[in-house]
Each structure stands twice: as C-alpha cells, then as structure tokens.
Amino acid sequence: CFFTFSTRLEDLRVKLENEGLVNISYVVVNHQGTSSQKKFHLLKESVSDYITVYQQDEQQDDVWTTLNGNKDDFLIYDRCGRLVYHLGLPYSFLSFQYVEESIKIAYCENKCGNCSYTEPDIDVVCENITKKADEKPAEIEPKEPKPTGQHSHHHHPHRHRHHH
C-alpha cells in the first residue's frame, strides 16, 4: 500500500515543481508501531531524496495524537508554520485532487500581506495555475466526494502562499 502512496506522492511533488511551485517540504511520518518500524527501510527506499521520512520512536508521544490527526491524514502548513489544511480520509487519497488543490491554495493565496519567504516569480506561477484551472471543462473533472465535516477542514481563516 505504501508503495502506491509513495509513487503518487512523488508524482505530485514532481508535477507541482514542474508547475513552478518550488521549495515545498514533504514529510512522511511513519507509524510508531512495531510492524511499521520493521518496514521503515522499505518506506524510506520507496520515496525520493526530496521526501523526508520521519521514524517515530516507540517511546515518544505519537505524532498523530499530538497533531490531532490520524496516520493517513495530510497536514498542509504555510511557510510560517501555520496549519492551513487538515485532510483526513477519504480526502487524503492522492487519486483525488484535494491534496494537490490544498497545496496550491496554501502556496498561492496571500492574505497576510508581504512576506520575506515569497518566491520571486510566485505571482506568474500562481496566475498560470489559476488560468489552467479556469480552462478545465467541468464535465471532464472526475467525480470526487465533496469534503464535509471534520475529515476535511480548514483550520485557520488565513491562507497563505507558503512552502510547507
């Protein structure tokens, strides 16, 4: 299962980078259970060097509990370390567009004013992304479940053009 996930995550990383969304950090948090720890090297080998795999220690507090999430969630932070999106199943499946779109929104929207962490060409990159989205015919888009409830939610009213 994690081989499919890691391939799709790498494909998403490359796609976003090719669209000009650079300096995004990707971190996979491995579950702290014994079974997951034994498979850590397989997970680490299944992702590129551009994706960090964090191994939890069995003795530490569980990262997912600390973050009020579950092991299959996507937490998307802005460049200032603020949580912008917390996507849970089924909205965290990489076969749907929710993760990609959430990253693009967090990267491109600038609600807080000027920021020293903004990439120089971000306006051009984000304009191109917006134009591509506007040109998509609605009938071609795959049918996906609509995010509702606590599994896909926006934690902060501010969204930012950020790299995390």
Automatic annotation (TrEMBL):
<dbReference type="GO" id="GO:0008430">
    <property type="term" value="F:selenium binding"/>
</dbReference>
<feature type="domain" description="Selenoprotein P N-terminal">
    <location>
        <begin position="3"/>
        <end position="164"/>
    </location>
</feature>
<keyword id="KW-0325">Glycoprotein</keyword>
<keyword id="KW-0732">Signal</keyword>
<dbReference type="InterPro" id="IPR037941">
    <property type="entry name" value="SeP"/>
</dbReference>
<feature type="compositionally biased region" description="Basic residues">
    <location>
        <begin position="151"/>
        <end position="164"/>
    </location>
</feature>
<protein>
    <submittedName>
        <fullName>SEPP1 protein</fullName>
    </submittedName>
</protein>
<dbReference type="GO" id="GO:0001887">
    <property type="term" value="P:selenium compound metabolic process"/>
</dbReference>
<feature type="region of interest" description="Disordered">
    <location>
        <begin position="135"/>
        <end position="164"/>
    </location>
</feature>
<keyword id="KW-0712">Selenocysteine</keyword>
<dbReference type="InterPro" id="IPR007671">
    <property type="entry name" value="Selenoprotein-P_N"/>
</dbReference>
<dbReference type="Pfam" id="PF04592">
    <property type="entry name" value="SelP_N"/>
</dbReference>
<dbReference type="GO" id="GO:0005576">
    <property type="term" value="C:extracellular region"/>
</dbReference>
<feature type="compositionally biased region" description="Basic and acidic residues">
    <location>
        <begin position="135"/>
        <end position="146"/>
    </location>
</feature>
<keyword id="KW-0964">Secreted</keyword>
